[in-house]
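Input record (one chain):
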Amino acid sequence: MTEKERREEERAKAKAEAEELVKGGEVKVENKETLKVKHEGGVVIEGASGLLVRIAKCCNPVPGDDIVGYITKGRGVAIHRVDCMNLRAQENYEQRLLDVEWEDQYSNSNKEYMAHIDIYGLNRTGLLNDVLQVLSNTTKNISTVNAQPTKDMKFANIHVSFGIANLSTLTTVVDKIKSVPEVYSVKRTNG
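The corresponding structure, as predicted from the sequence alone:
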């Protein structure tokens, strides 16, 4: 069998499996060693090549997060965090999951992934400036900032979206923001 014939056979088999999953059926997995294939976005999927892969915007996984692939209807494989509530809300979602992993979850590659955090603190002069100073010193790209005081004007809620390389970078950023005076909580959000 030539290489071209082998690849065509693999594609036909993968297509048949995907169609069976879309119809709600189950796919029998042969117990043999599978090839790990690197896809766009730094994700590795075992035994599947040529798939459209995208990072889900609902949970914004970053390298280092526990992730899973979800076979969508007509939009390829969406990469979600394992704890994504939108994923769990899908009917029969367990049947459409693929095992995936990050290519290199600890690398400081040039690829950026969006992270979103909510910051809650005392509404004092300079709080937003202090938070943005930490972000500008630790990240390359700040995408959005939204800051609002509470109704009584005593506290402030700040939502920030920014680009990071991996989970350890996000953890470092969160820890540095927590050290800003009068910041009471910093939480990662889904967007």
